[in-house]
Amino acid sequence: MTLKLHIDDGTAPYEQVRAQISEQARSGALPVGYRLPTVRGLAESLGLAANTVAKAYRALEADGVIETRGRNGTFVAAAGPAADREAAGAAQAYAERVRRLGLTQDAALAAVRDALRAAYGQ
What we know:
The protein is mostly helical. It has helices at about 15-25, 40-45, 50-60, 80-100, 105-120; strands at about 65-70, 75. Helices cover about 60% and strands about 5% of the residues.
């Protein structure tokens, strides 16, 4: 696993760690079951505080990208069904929220397209 932090780009270090691990896991560069370094180990190798790496790991676990198996360590989780379920849940919550706000279906879809373009840098 290779991570490169860019201090001068304005993105928080924990977000850079989270984004890079997520991308490497989704692309297959980090295969399912790959054991990640410990929080302290990764923090030391990157020159970060352990809390910074812990925050990134918590976010990755919440996203279903990694899973912690107690004292056995932290591993890249299987993508697919869990990620699909979480995405479906988020989509359902969004649909209910925009309906309550009174947005039309077209306006709600436009908001999603804008958010996805921003998230994926397009």
